[in-house]
Amino acid sequence: MGWMHLLLELLELIFQELSLNDVMNCRATCRSWRKAADAIFSSQLPLMLSLSFGYPNDLGSLSAPWSNHDDSTVLTEKWPQEIDNYYNSIYSVQGWLVFNIFHYESVKGQTLFSELSFFNPFSRARFKLPKLFLNSGGRCYYQLRVAFNSAPPGSEEFVVAFLVLFSYQENVHNLTGSEDTKQKLAFIRFKQGSWIESIETDELFYDIEVHDNNKLYGLTFKHGTSVVFVFTLGDNHHIVERLVMLKTIEGIAFSELRVSDEFFKRRHQMVMDTRTGELLLVCHEGNMRFDSIVYHSSLRTKGFSVFKLDRSNLKWCEVFDIGDRFLFWNFAQVSFVSAKGLRVEERFKRGNCIFFCHANIYGIYQFSELKKYDIGVFFLADRTISHFLTSCLPNTHWNMWFNPAP
User: Fold this and answer.
1) How far is CA 105 from the centre of its chain?
2) Quick one: average pLDDT of 218-246?
């Protein structure tokens, strides 16, 4: 029996003794080795995607900083999209990278479109969603949020929701205080193939989440408290619930959302456990400094607070145990990962911790307690932080978590 015909179980045992970089190299050998390598990656924690923006192409790498090896790089390559504008965004969903690219086209003046492009760095598969018209009338300043349901990308049940807030005034800082601020809230079902833009609401939303294939959750702040709106995603996109929290969370201010700040960091994000329908609000706590010379914010994480939506009592309840689950946080999104069946260090086996990653690439980290990278894990039980080794990580502008296995 040759190496190409070893049993899958035996190959997996062999690959477990290799570094993830070597497993990635083995993956390119043949179909059976690729299957065994994918089984290894599916049993690991999500990888960290690091992006370097620049001409002629954007370089990116996948690494495993939680392994605490000097060099934890798994893959380095050029991505299929050039991300040369800080307003463009990148997301991760079930083994796919999602590139949101804004296009200005000369259609009755300057008209802004958004295009979502999906790319799987392991299978090399890719597809695009139809362009979504946003607005016309010249360049504007905006903030973006994209949410996905739990269906596999590209399947008929796959749903994407898109929220964008924009203003034509360069000096607008507070979205709620500007009459010039506009919002577009739309969704698309993959099997239907076109955007549905008729979700009408007078509220300006801070965050959105999608549950199953028919519920859209929108978070806003009004009269000093938080409100969660629940929409149906059908032929008639009406509000089915309007949950007004009786007690808001200290420290959350909707005025923090600035349309003119390219480096705005989303400090409060919703995340839904698609298995249970449980909705959480995750709040980041940290020191942030701003360097006016290079126009960049630098960050050092101090901890997190997690709140669960209590529908019966209409309030956010702080939780200190999320069970055998992990939260993976970056400033584009936060996601749940179950600890069951994963091969992890002993300290991670119970779950109940939050992994975070952030790149402080410019200036200020050299002159303060802020480091070049802010990457580590926060343990909810005792509120302690363990930072990962970053000495061999490349210089990047953007870090985010990526799970290679659906």
Assistant:
1) 28
2) 81
In a domain, 339, yes or no: yes
Tokens describing residue 249: 């969370």
236 plus 273 within the same structural domain? no
Q: 77 lies in a domain?
A: no
In a domain, 58, yes or no: no
CA atoms within 13 A on the CB side of 364: 18
Q: What is the pLDDT of residues 272-283, one digit of tens each?
A: 998 888 999 999
Better-scored residue on pLDDT, 12 or 188? 188
Model confidence at 355, pLDDT cuts 50, 70, 90, reads: very high
pTM of this structure: 0.85
Give dist(CA 61, CA 76) in Å, integer: 4
Does some domain include residue 49?
A: no
**Which range scores top for mean pLDDT: 118-127, 254-263, 318-327?**
318-327
* Domain co-membership, 309 together with 207: no
Same domain assignment for residues 221 and 294: no
**Taking residues 361-368, what's their average pLDDT?**
44
Task: Give the burial string for 313-341 (b: 16+ CB within 10 Å, else e).
Answer: eebbeeeeebeebbbbbbbbbbbbbebee
